[in-house]
Records
---
Amino acid sequence: MNLLDMKLWKLTAVGAIALMGVVGCSNDHLIRTEDGQLIESDEKPEIDDDTGMIEYEDEQGYENQMKQSEVKEIIER
């Protein structure tokens, strides 16, 4: 293996590790509702202690709430 091949291999390995780090930091969640809708949330939805409703931030950055009974599942991607 010559010097150029060795540098290319190292660069590829470092790039792959960096890419895995970025992908690993992704925190998108999908909320599947009882009526079949899929809602994307940038952060993990949480239950509001005062109202008992599920709070989430949508793709546009708006805070939203929905009844727990309307949520079928929450999927982390």
---
Amino acid sequence: MAKSRNNLLGVGGQRKKLSRAEQQGAGSARGADRKAAEDKKQELVRKMRERAEAAQAATTAAEPGEQDASPAQS
């Protein structure tokens, strides 16, 4: 039998230290910060998509006028 077979200290990894608020079930402020950051990111992505769609619509609206002028010159 192996020596110190019953000594399993440190085998399972480390546990995170819980604050008093977390122990009482209030959750962590870090989770709220992550949620706020995710909300900001989603808002930024939405604005960027709207701008890209507006730019694409503007170029699409401008192109037919330019294409109509090209065949008339030929």
